[in-house]
Amino acid sequence: MQLPHCPNYFILSLLISINLCTKTESTSTSCNEGYSFSKMGRNITHCKKLRTLKAEFGWPYQGKVQDFPNNRSSTLVDIFFSAPPVGATGWVAWGVNPLRPFMAGTRALIGFKHPNGSMHLETYNIATDTKRGCQLSSSDIEVKVNDTSITYSADSGFLTIIATLSLPQEYNVSKLNLVSQVGSVKDSTPQMHDDTLKNFDSAETIDLSSGKSTSVRHRLHYHITAHGVLSIVGWGTLVPIGAITARYFKEFPVKFCGWYPLHVSCQISGYLIGSTGWVIGIYLGSSSRYYDFTTHRDFGIIIFTFSTLQVLALFVRPKRGDDHLRYWNIYHHLLGYTLMVLITINIFKGINILRPEKIWKWTYMGLVTALAFLVISFEVFTWMKFVKCKRLNRRP
Q1: Which helix (H) or strand (E) holds 176?
Q2: Which of 18, 98, 172, 308 is the most exposed place for a label (fewest CB within 10 A)?
Q3: Which residues partner with 216 through β-bridges?
């Protein structure tokens, strides 16, 4: 059965292309414990925790056998693939690609649990058009698949796919390209997976005989980390501190003679650090051929543009006593407060895309909470002092 051609986005990729990747080597570990399929009583000689999606892969290598009808050799391998689905009825997918760890050309097994508790497992030939979207239909594949089963463990929350594959000669078992993915199911149809880096960066190239593997790690991983850290430090920390300094320490409620150099220092350093993160982000976007986080990118461009206008405004600030100073202040304050809102929203969007360890999100939430508490405290103090001063001035 051929895949239908549709303009919608479906499983945007079972895997991002290996074109822009580096590799880190690892070996398989003992299968006796720590795996969702370790107690199934099967002869599993190699096991590996895949680097994304909390997925696990196990297999006993059986070697090549002769396929007598066409006089071709093939490789028999039993596969055990486990991953936590998106929700109790979400889907999990495991597949092989004869050319590279890439969506197009992947021969996949996709399974999920129906709401009534019955299990569903089908083979799929992932065509090039799939990444442009459409409902995926099951189809036959040239990889012979036998003895298939799928189980769900309520204790671990993992779905486990079990199958015996007969891999044709074009599949290099010393460098077998694997793809994996998880997503949700609606009306018994797999839906598009989440558009996070963990979903786009889920691949392994494994030597079945030795158990050694190379994880397909995006070569821009450290650029992504730098982009996030610089953005949080520059846009998310220094710029708000500079704004707080100007708001509450200029003259009222607390007069601090050094407020201006502190304000300018925070804003300029925040702008330079944040802009460095922004440049890295633009580079990341231009380097990503297969995915694009449009909203996060657009917010970043707006933030950089507004921040640049704020910095340039310092050079055209009217002198004290100038009639235009009032209008300059209105513009400067309004644009600054708008920036604070956009920066906070976009940093949370970036965290949602990256899906790092929870400590990152909680750390930034703690920072935002601390800054918000500081602003609220100063604002209450400002109005209390304002009301007090107004009453004193009205006394005869």
Answers
A1: strand 176-183
A2: 308
A3: 23
At a CB cut-off of 8 Å and minimum separation 6, what does 370 contact?
Answer: none
| CA 285/CA 295 separation, integer angstroms | 12
Count of CA atoms in the C-beta half-sphere (13 A) of 133: 9
Q: Write the CA distances from 177 to 17, 18, 79, 206, integer angstroms.
A: 11, 10, 14, 7
Compute the distance between CA of residue 44 and CA of residue 368 in angstroms, rounded to an integer.
Answer: 48
Sequence-distant (≥ 6) Cβ neighbours of residue 258 within 8 angstroms: none
229: Cα within 13 Å, side-chain hemisphere: 6
Helices in the chain by DSSP H: which ranges?
197-200, 221-233, 239-249, 259-287, 294-313, 325-354, 358-394
Q: Which residues are bridge partners to 165 per DSSP?
A: 77, 145
Report field, pTM of the whole predicted structure over 0.70: no
DSSP string, 32-70: SSSSTTTTS-----EEEE-SSTT-EEEE-EEEEEEEGGG
With contact defined as beta carbons under 8 Å apart, do 13 and 103 qualify? yes
**Whole-angstrom Cα distance, residue 271 to residue 85?**
41
Q: If you average pLDDT over each of 229-243, 310-324, 356-370, which comes out highest?
A: 229-243
What pLDDT is attached to residue 71?
56
